[in-house]
Design goal:
With 231 residues, the chain is of the alpha/beta class. It is built from 11 helices and 7 strands.
Length: 231
C-alpha cells in the first residue's frame, strides 16, 4: 500500500495545487482514479505572517510542528509543506518532528541538476528571495542562484500577498513577471524557480522566457515518489 501523505498547508492556493497534483498524478503510478491517502492541516496564513513579519522563525517552526502532530494523529507517514517561505523554519523542526519531511528546495535542486541547469533565477516572497532557503540547496548541486533587483523583489512580494494568495491572477501581473524573467535571462540565468507555490498558477513554460522549475508540482511529485517507494 502507498504511504499516507500529510500536507502542512500555509497559503490556500498553493496547498490546493499541491493536493490536486498528488491526487491527479497519483493515477499514473497507482492506476485509474487511485492516489495515496492524503490529509491536510492548515492554520490561518495570518497566524504564520505574524511570526514571519517579525522574523520569528521559531514561531513558524512551532506551528509546523503542531501541524505535524495533528497529521501524525490522522495517520500520515510523511510530510510536505507546499510553502517555500515557511521552509526557513523546517530545518529547525526536522530533528524534533514526529514524521519525516521532504524539503521543497532540495527537491527543486535535484530536478534542476537533472535538467543540467547551472544558474537559476529565484522568484518568491521577499523573505524567500532574500533568505537562506534556496542558495545552499542549489549550491550543493553546483547551481548558482540569482534574485531580482530590490525594487523588483518588493513589487513581486506585493503581487504575491495582495493578489496570488487570494486567487487573483491578472494579465498585467503575468506580464510583469515575464519581464522580470526576461531580465534574469539577459543576466545569464538558464531557468527560473517558481519559488512561491502560487506562481505556477500565474505563469508556466508557455508564458516564461526561461524554462520553469515549478516548486509546487515538483514537491507533490516527490511526495508521490516517496509514498510508493518500496520500504
Amino acid at each position: 500500500m502507498a504511504r499516507h501523505i500529510g500536507i502542512v498547508g500555509v497559503s490556500a492556493e498553493g496547498a490546493a495545487l499541491c493536493y490536486r497534483t498528488v491526487c491527479l498524478e497519483g493515477a499514473s503510478l497507482l492506476g485509474r482514479h487511485a492516489h495515496p491517502e492524503v490529509t491536510m492541516h492548515t492554520y490561518p496564513l495570518a497566524d504564520y505572517m505574524r511570526h514571519v513579519d517579525g522574523d520569528g522563525w521559531q514561531g513558524v517552526a512551532d506551528m509546523l510542528l503542531a501541524s505535524a502532530g495533528k497529521l501524525r494523529g490522522a495517520g500520515a507517514d510523511l510530510l510536505i509543506c507546499p510553502d517555500n517561505t515557511a521552509h526557513q523554519a523546517i530545518d529547525l523542526v526536522r530533528d524534533r518532528s514526529p514524521l519525516p519531511w521532504l524539503h521543497i528546495a532540495e527537491e527543486v535542486a535535484k530536478v534542476a541538476s537533472q535538467r543540467e541547469f547551472r544558474r537559476v533565477l529565484l522568484l518568491g516572497t521577499r523573505y524567500l528571495m532574500e533568505g537562506p532557503v534556496y542558495p545552499p540547496k542549489l549550491g550543493s548541486q553546483g547551481i548558482e542562484c540569482e534574485i531580482p533587483e530590490a525594487a523588483e523583489r518588493e513589487r513581486i512580494n506585493a503581487f504575491i500577498f495582495d493578489e496570488l494568495v487570494y486567487g487573483r491572477f491578472e494579465e498585467s501581473t503575468r506580464s510583469y513577471f515575464g519581464r522580470v524573467v526576461a531580465e534574469g535571462k539577459r543576466r545569464g540565468a538558464d531557468a527560473v524557480v517558481l519559488g512561491c507555490t502560487e506562481i505556477p498558477l500565474l505563469i508556466s513554460d508557455a508564458d516564461s522566457p526561461l524554462p520553469t522549475l515549478d516548486s509546487t508540482r515538483i514537491l507533490a511529485r516527490a511526495a508521490l515518489r516517496e509514498a510508493v517507494r518500496e520500504r
